[in-house]
Design a protein that fits this description.
The chain is α/β, with parallel strands linked by helices and 287 residues long. It is built from 6 helices and 12 strands. It has a 6-stranded mixed β-sheet.
């Protein structure tokens, strides 16, 4: 009788383990909203970003996205810089974002500190179940380990603060790299990384110490994809087995003809990216 019970429990365990490893998870993402109540600048339509975010939220609610993340440059500022105005823009766009009642996350972009501090940004922008003082952090959902990086530091390790930075001098400091290595060793789950400035490419918009960061990600062997923003035209690279997908900026172009956001579905074998508007759809195979 004991042997029969043991066999039954073993079969149930194997069935459960199989179902967990094969499960899928979908989430939504958008980037480079640059919301501000200011005049257009070329293809950047600051005021129209509110309508674009609302369209994105409606879609995510309808499609039942598991969670929603924005990849940085959530707001912008007037010229000359006005911190109170910028905080006002942040309140407006965060209120729109909060219409999505699932878990919501932010990635810090350079424009998020253009005339305010990181602390001021996170006094309004909220990450679900994450302490406000954490600008890089992680969370787990549906059998995946998600890591959010903050590359808004200069080459000396000094944090971007109230416009006191050169936007092309973007780095992930040593203390964050140490945290990243430890975080990657915390579990055996597949890993997905989010960052604003690209870890791929070798241009002035890329993270300056991207090669060092990529080496840490590659050593882990479980990092499947990096999702990033900043480069409004978007892009894609496969580097040493890791996918680097750059989502097109939402700010670009007139609404409703132009918008950009995506729903990502993760499976054991695939990363399926369904782009809406200008966002590029991708069907990526993972190892």
């Amino acid at each position: 009788m004991k042997n029969i019970r043991f066999a039954f429990l073993l079969i149930c365990t194997l069935i459960f383990a199989s179902s967990v490893s094969a499960q899928t998870l979908s989430f939504g993402m958008f980037t480079d909203v640059h919301y501000a109540a200011i005049a257009d600048n070329g293809t950047r339509k600051y005021n129209q970003s509110l309508d674009k975010v609302n369209q994105c939220i409606d879609t995510m609610i309808r499609k039942k996205a598991g969670f929603l993340i924005e990849l940085g440059d959530f707001k912008d500022m007037p010229v000359p810089p006005d911190s109170q105005a910028a905080l006002g823009y942040l309140k407006v766009i965060e209120t729109a974002f909060s219409r999505f009642h699932g878990d919501r996350y932010h990635v810090l972009g350079n424009h998020d500190e253009d005339c305010i501090s990181k602390e001021q940004f996170y006094s309004i922008a909220q990450n679900s179940n994450i302490s406000k003082n954490k600008t890089w952090y992680s969370f787990q959902k549906g059998g995946y380990h998600f890591i959010v990086l903050d590359a808004c530091f200069d080459s000396t390790g000094r944090a971007y603060d109230k416009g006191n930075f050169i936007w092309s001098d973007t780095n992930i400091p040593s203390v964050e790299l140490t945290w990243l290595e430890k975080e990657l060793n915390k579990s055996k789950l597949p890993v997905v990384v989010f960052v604003h400035q690209p870890l791929s490419g070798n241009t002035k918009v890329s993270v300056s110490n991207a090669e060092k960061v990529r080496a840490i990600l590659e050593k882990c062997k479980r990092v499947k994809c990096v999702f990033q923003g900043h480069e409004h035209k978007g892009g894609y690279e496969l580097i040493n087995g890791i996918h680097y997908y750059t989502l097109k900026g939402m700010i670009e172009g007139d609404f409703p003809a132009s918008n950009s956001f995506a729903i990502v579905t993760l499976t054991k074998e695939k990363i399926l990216i369904r782009g809406f508007g200008n966002a590029v759809s991708q069907n990526l195979t993972v190892n």
